[in-house]
Amino acid sequence: MIEMKDVHKTYPNGVKAINGIDVKIHQGEFAYIVGPSGAGKSTFIKMMYREEKPSTGTINVNGVNVAKLKSSRVPIFRRNIGVVFQDFKLLPKLTVYENVAFALEAIEEHPEKIKARVLEVLDLVGLKHKIRSLPDELSGGEQQRVSIARSIVNKPKVVIADEPTGNLDPETSWEIMDIFDRINKTGTTILMATHNREIVNTIRKRVIAVENGKIVRDEVRGDYGYES
Q1: Which of 19, 90, 172, 207 can bridge 213 by disulfide, Cβ–Cβ 3.0-4.6 Å?
Q2: Tens of pLDDT along 163-182?
Q3: Which GO MF terms does the UniProt record name (predicted)?
Q4: pTM for the full model?
């Protein structure tokens, strides 16, 4: 599902964020990306959905060579993956329903199919009763649930999450993780960058630790391994 071969990333200011990464993440896996601040985790994640391009190396995501993808093809590529951000990135003037439906409307899906699928995913994340609410009428946890619903409405094979519980209280974070676990059990690959030591140590999944732009640890059922 995801494969990186000898990937390097150096920014224009000379900072080497990624320094020779090789990794494979298979379909249906759930993997955490952990490491200290400045280790390269965000760059690692951003290259997966082509927010950043590698300087050298190959990145294949869902059968697409992301490193060589033309900028004009990036929006089409992103339709087949789900991305969840720490700061939600919801459209403030659209309702919950409209935020989730937007991705399907962009590909001109039939209105009846849009309605059925949007209600299905909002039911999955427990927000079917909030379809007419605007983002600023929701709590942080509810906004993240909308973000997750939006990320899976196209039925992607892989969901990439960048610190999805970073702005949430502990109780809400566990609720969000329960949703991710349910999504993963449907066969969707989950790749999640996180600083949440307790979650990683409790919900044991594959742990890929990054330091100084390199993978220093890759364990099937690993622990966080850092002071949070």
Answers
A1: 19
A2: 999 889 999 999 999 999 99
A3: ATP binding; ATP hydrolysis activity; transmembrane transporter activity
A4: 0.91
Q: In which residue are the tokens 């044991």 written?
A: 204
Q: In what order do the strands lie in the sheet with 214-219?
A: 81-84, 158-162, 189-193, 30-34, 206-211, 214-219
How does pLDDT run across 36-53, given as a tens digit for each residue?
Answer: 988 999 899 999 999 999
Strand locations in the chain, DSSP E? 2-10, 16-25, 30-34, 56-61, 64-65, 81-84, 158-162, 189-193, 206-211, 214-219
Backbone angles phi, psi at 127, to 5 degrees: -130, 25
Say if residues 140 and 171 touch (Cβ distance below 8 Å). no
CA distance 140 to 183: 20
